[in-house]
Structures are given as structure tokens and as C-alpha cells.
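Q: How would the C-alpha cells look for this protein?
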Amino acid sequence: MASTAAVPFWRSAGMTYISYSNICANIVRNCLKEPHKSDALAREKVHFTVTKWSEGKPEKPTTRSDDPDV
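A: Here is the predicted structure in C-alpha cell form.
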């Protein structure tokens, strides 16, 4: 039987490492003073491209963002 003593606290709280690291990154970014805070918040935005495939050929890619204003 596996021991639970070595389980990281974020795992025992029911979180994944990615969600834990995102929370930590947000805390650090919010603790920064200006102008470093606005620079870090600007780098936080994510843009990605989605390409659907139909009959073995790619369709026109669409660019998406996590920012609702874009």
C-alpha cells in the first residue's frame, strides 16, 4: 500500500500542479510594484491558433485569446 506522507499539499487539496502554479503566478504578479506589475500582467495573456481538419486537409486557422476584449 502506498504511503500518503509524501503527497504534495496541492495534490492532497485536490488540485493539479498546473492549477497550483497558476495561482502562485497570479499572487506573485499581483505583489509586484509598477511598472513591473503591468509588464507581468501583459505577458500573462495567451493567444493561440486552432486549425480544424476536414478530409485530411487543414481548414483556415482561427486565432483565439483568453482575453474577452480581443
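The two ends are 50 Å apart (CA to CA).

The longest strand covers residues 47-50.

Upvote if useful.
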